[in-house]
User: What shape does this take?
Amino acid sequence: MDNNNYMPEIAFHLEHPLMERIVELREKGYADAKATVTPSAAGEGAGEGRLYPDAPVDYEDAIENYKAILDITADVAANIIEPNAESVDLEGPHLENGRMIYASKTYENLEATRRAGLHGVSMPRRYGGLNLPNTVFSMLSEIISAADAGFQNIWSLQSCIDTLYEFASEEQRQRYIPRVCAGETMSMDLTEPDAGSDLQRVMLKATYSEEEGCWLLNGVKRFITNGDSDIHLVLARSEEGTRDGRGLSMFIYDKRQGGVDVRHIEHKLGIHGSPTCELTYKNARAELVGSRKMGLIKYVMALMNGARLGIAAQSVGVEQEAYKEGLAYARERAQFGQKIIEFPAVYDMLSRMRAKLDAGRSLLYQTARYVDIYKALEDIARDRKLTPEERAELKTYSRLADAFTPLAKGMNSEYANQNAYDAISIHGGSGFIMEYKSQRLFRDARIFSIYEGTTQLQVVAAIRYVTNGTYIDIIHQMYDQCLNLDNYVSAKTESTAAIEQLRPLRHRIATMTELYEHAVAYVKEADDAEVHDFLARRLYDMTAEIIMSLLIVDDAARAALTGSECADQFFRSAGVYVRMAEEDVIGKSTYVTRFIREDLAAFRAAQPAKEPQA
Assistant: This one.
């Protein structure tokens, strides 16, 4: 793994205009930098000093802090995590006496990230955290995933603490958050043998024991990532006699209390270093988080949205590595007297892989920025009443984050699979050989579009925004701002000619948008639920591709106007991505607007009416 291949792109997104607002909100006016410790608190003979000496004093200081943390993470990823990845993949975790034991090199990875201070990164400094925005956390996740996607799972599950911070009591925060900041691991125990995507069917039983003075959990959890972690967030049925989501609550289980054993560790296609466990709860002592009956309705939704953004970052990391592996092999491999990168079939694949990577990364970080603003405002609202302007801002960015998250997770997880597939294709027969890294990326990527909500469930989450016009409004607003010089406040005047080179792409996006709007209107006018559901994936894809087209064109303009070293690459990716999206939108809009209800019969007819006779 060569971090220089992608660090310039991450640095570019770190300098996005929205970052200044994000840092201002996150640092609450740089209050931590102003906090002081008195001589008595500091110890006899000590003078007054800063309580948090590492807290940034202004925006520029914050960005420098973020860059330093990114550099540390890149160093750990390149020199420890990536070199360990093959060994971890081969060894994997194993089971001993009801306990999960990581692969030996996983312990080395965990220790390296702890020594580097890369735990509890999103938590406030008063609990021992780094108070990093979600955007920076996503950048760290991308870097670690590029080194080893399986280890990224273990490391990034620290983000479960965000849900505990939002909904737990202060006493619970004081007990658990510092432990995670010190490097203890977490898991979210949601799914069960009969409750996968349909979490309303969760039946793990939670009973309050007056004698014990706590809740007791009994039952089985299945497919739990990092399931033998130190601290678990558990979805369980607290209301006897219920069978839907209204009877579920969220609990904290501390491994120190005992009562949970690992019954089985799954043998998986990929992400071998990330243990996927089946757990048995037998009178496991636990404590309630927040209010009863809000476990699924409120707390899991918050938990899952954070996890989905984490999978988007994980996916971008693998997209990057798959592209890098394919590019390196194509430059080196010669056939028929020339390097294979000179063949149109190969450079077509590589250009599309790069365009998907750049557009997918742009979608990831745009989503993370939206999440950062509304989450920071929600946090401020815990301390004081928001102004009317702040309430309006929270509403706007909460809506944008909710609309963009299923696009970021769904599209990037699919792109990771596509890039990993294409990397093997570029390698030819060598890609099928276990000694080459591409096969591991391919195996690892397959789960991304399945866990934390399949792509089909991301379509379900997004489709209401398609039919109610939200995405159309967003696209029009983005289109109006795209290539508008007033939006590029740091533009270098001599570089504005770059805008003119991008205008033909903007015109192509306008045509795509018209086709998309016609397709949406057609489905709405059909007023047929089954047709609507059948065509939803095509509408989702078109939505995401138009939005990503606008994002990558804007990135190309901003990179050129600010003199970024990414400018040439973004120009190439914008040209490729918009044409690729155009190809897809034209095809899918034609499919949608020519589809009639009677066509469903052909698809039903493809399914045998009866099981074939033995």
